[in-house]
Design a protein that fits this description.
The protein has about 210 residues and is of the alpha/beta class. It is built from 6 helices and 5 strands.
C-alpha cells in the first residue's frame, strides 16, 4: 500500500497550495516481489519510482490479514473489530462512519474511488464519502463474489478518465485505487482429455477406499 499526502500549513504561516492525494492499495502481493523492497527482476518500475522519489516505509503492519477488514482500517483509522468488520463480504462499515473520503470531501475535495475487488464494493460500506465510486463487476454470481475482480488496467483507466475529466477544473482531489496484482500469470494449464480421465478415475478409487474404511 502506498499513500501520498501533503499537510496543510498551520498557525500564521502562508498557506501552501492545497495538495492532491492519491491512495493506491495493492492486494495479495508480497513485499519481496516489489523492486523497492529488494526484488531484482524489474516487475514494478512505477511503484519503485514512487518509493525512490518519495518516502518508503520499511515496516508497515496491516491491521488484518484480510482485504475487507484491512481496507476498513485504512479508510477509517479504526481497528476493524471496533467497526464489526471481521471478514470479507460480511458486515459492512457502519453507515455514517467518518472515512478519509468524507473528511477530504468536507475540506472541499472531489473524491473518487476505483475498485478492483467486489469485496470492497459499496455493499460493504466502502463508498462512504466518495463522489464517484467505480466498482462494476461483470458476469459473476453471488456464490463467486469473494473471487470477483477487475483487471488492474481497467481500474487504472477508470481512475485516469475521472482525473482528466473537463469538469474537474482546479478542484483538489482524493483518488483511491485498489487492485489485485500478480507478478506471474496464474492462468491454469489446460489438461488433455486422457489426463483428466485418469485423474477422475484416481479420485473415484480413493473415494471408494475411504468409504470401505469407514
Amino acid at each position: 500500500m502506498l499513500l501520498g499526502i501533503a499537510a496543510w500549513s498551520v498557525g500564521g504561516r502562508a498557506q501552501a497550495p492545497t495538495p492532491n492525494v492519491l491512495l493506491i492499495t495493492i492486494d495479495t502481493i508480497r513485499a519481496d516481489r516489489i523492486g523497492a523492497y529488494g526484488y531484482t527482476k524489474g516487475a514494478t518500475p512505477a511503484i519503485d519510482r514512487l518509493a525512490r522519489e518519495g518516502v518508503r516505509f520499511a515496516d508497515a503492519t496491516s491491521q488484518a490479514p484480510l482485504t475487507g477488514p484491512a481496507h476498513a482500517a485504512i479508510l477509517t483509522g479504526q481497528y476493524p473489530g471496533r467497526l464489526g468488520v471481521r471478514d470479507n463480504a460480511t458486515t459492512p462499515i457502519p453507515q455514517g462512519t467518518p472515512t478519509a473520503a468524507s473528511l477530504f470531501k468536507a475540506r472541499g475535495y472531489r473524491t473518487g474511488g476505483f475498485i478492483g475487488a467486489f469485496i470492497l464494493g459499496s455493499e460493504y460500506g466502502f463508498a462512504q464519502g466518495f463522489d464517484v465510486f467505480d466498482a462494476q463487476f461483470q458476469q459473476f454470481t453471488a456464490g463467486s463474489k469473494l473471487q470477483a475482480q477487475r483487471r488492474g488496467g481497467d481500474v487504472v483507466d477508470a481512475a485516469v478518465k475521472w482525473l482528466r475529466s473537463p469538469s474537474s477544473g482546479s478542484t483538489p482531489f482524493l483518488a483511491g485505487s485498489t487492485s489485485t496484482m500478480r507478478i506471474r500469470p496464474t492462468k491454469p494449464r489446460r489438461r488433455s482429455a486422457p489426463v483428466c480421465r485418469v485423474a477422475l478415475r484416481r479420485r473415484n478409487r480413493l473415494r471408494r477406499q475411504l468409504h470401505r474404511a469407514c
